[in-house]
Amino acid sequence: MKAIQSTINDFFALTGTIFSIPVYQRNYTWEEENCEKLLQDIVSISQNKKTHFMGSITYISHLIDDEKSLRQLQEFVIIDGQQRVTTIMLLLKAIETKIKNEGIKKEINNLLNLSGQRLRLKPIKSDKEAFDLVMQNRSHELQGVSHIRNNYKFFTKELDNYISKGYRIEEIYGAFLRLKIVAIGLELGEDDPQVVFESINATGVQLKGLDLIRNYLMMGENSDNQKHLYDTYWVPLENWLGEKDLNDFIKTYLRIYFEDKVKEGEREVYYTLKAHHRDNFPDDIQGLMSDMREYGRIYQIFLDRDHYFLERGDSQQLANLRLRIKDLVKIKFGVAKPFVLRCARDFEEGKLDYENFYEILQILISYFVRRSVCGDPTAALNKILYSLYRQLEENVSADALKRYLGKSVGQAAFPNDDKIKAAFAVRNAYSANQACKFILLEIEKLSNAEPPKEENLEVEHFYPKTPTQEWRDMVGDYFTFEQDYLNNFGNLTLSGQNQKLGNKPYEAKIELMEQYSSLHLNDYFLNNTHSWGIEEVKARSEYLADQFCQVELFKDLPKEYRTREINKTLDDDLTSHNLQSVKLPNQQRKIARNAKELASAIIDYLLENAKEAFESYTDEAQRYICWDKAKAQLRDRDGTLVAPFEKYGFYFVSNASYQTVGNNLRDLVEGCGLNPRDFIVE
């Protein structure tokens, strides 16, 4: 690395040198206010004869063959400072058009290489036409919006203003000659441009995560490879997805490999991608970008597009898959995207057949909707769904998924029909409005093959959200009703006439539904009610729960998939379990006749097979890992509940409850990145 203090003039005037903006850089984006500040600084030093430091310009130096002159040129690839370099050249061109001194005109001509076979600056493709036309005095030919043209016009206009106020253009040019920079030159093979780039952008206005990622993927390559990688892999991603969806895609893509360890912040995503390159595609940036492009193409299945993106399956199969995936998007089941994306690629590659893929999507929809009905926390799904593909191992199929979910307990459990019916009776369904609308529409489809379009329907409260006194008198204990039953499934329906229905009286609502509604959901009110109150809500809620359980898309798991094995795992309730031994993930079996022996066997395994993860794990609440012997003994007065690991300087302290020991060990195993189900307690 060479860092040299220089003037802008000397830096631009280097013989046989061109400046190149790499293809992966952002477009030229300086606004008029940035240009105004720069020009004000230059005009100011034109009067006080001082110098002005503009900052640093970092570049990578290459030798390239110039086909036109048949000689080698030195190319400075600008990796930081492209906005300033481009702006200075626009200002120089504006000065050149205003100045009468032929000697200075010639100097500027040489700096910009206006009469040469190629201009001094080679912008990225999207900026090149505008820059070339400005330098050729043809900016009026440019169509559309351009920061380059706008800023050039700003400079010419402002220079005219300064000249009209008595400022001499020669003095302004003289101030340009006193602009100072630090030119930082990097050599490929000796310096790591990405490390330098990160350091430069660690302060000030930070680049967006996408800019960092794009730069990282291509910065270390020569110009030809950069263009190949950019055009072949990155441009398709940008064209397919756009900025917002490309950001979401990259997080989804990384979760295929890193599961729930991917954080949301832009910098964290960037660092995870670097780790992905190092761990999974070492020394193979093209392999990494090819993998991203393939998943990115398939990712379009989650977007609202009119055509298919999977390269396998007949048109009817693709239409069916698209419908199910749109359902996943509709109910905001984004946490399933990494697993679905992986399954979609398996489907394309022939590893997963259509029937299994379609049923997997149905199972996922049922799983998510049932959890929504029961009010199960969505936060727990991150750990469950992000690791799902790995948990199914080599057997990714609908059958394997049903078996896996059927054995899940606690927060991961697949709610059965009994839980659904109990939840329908008490749940605030309106709080999950999108899932509520989806559920009611699917129930409607049981009896109505051609329901109104979804976008024309809204969730409607039969007893209104803003009730009149007449409504309150009808239900009697209106306080209890509004507290416990207003948002219950039994009081909710679908309607395209919400404004007409509003808080009209019961009889008026019934009449309007009879006149305007074509929904079977609303036939219930017409055929089964004569008034409205708590008992009527309960009855309709029970009816809707029965209907829900008949919807094919929401079907329960067959009973055979819910049969638990006699042996349990660390993910099960170990209360009253007759401990004998534990079978470890390496298939070794260890004697474990009590809680202490169970803890010893499992922690020994972790120390042998996941030591690094174990050492980085922290029992923040200090519930069961104790680093002080005296404290451990205080917590274990009878000497039977401490499993000492004195070689490593800690003690595992628990109590006599098998379930507490099991829970603590499960947390520890998960904290080490392993699956509690792989530890079979016999």
Strand coverage percent = 5-15%
Major sheet attributes: 6 strands, mixed
Structural class: alpha+beta
Helical content (DSSP H or I, runs of 4+): 40-55%
Would you tell me the overall average pLDDT?
86
Number of strands: 15
From the alpha-carbon coordinates, what is the Rg to the nearest angstrom?
34 Å
Question: Would you give an account of this structure?
Answer:
- The protein is of the alpha+beta class.
- 53% of the residues lie in helices and 11% in strands.
- A hairpin with a 5-residue loop joins β10 (581-583) and β11 (589-591).
- The longest helix is centred in the middle third of the chain and has 36 residues, at 223-258.
- The model has no long low-confidence stretch (mean pLDDT 86).
Key attributes of the depicted protein:
15 strands; alpha+beta; 4-stranded antiparallel sheet; 682 residues; 6-stranded mixed sheet
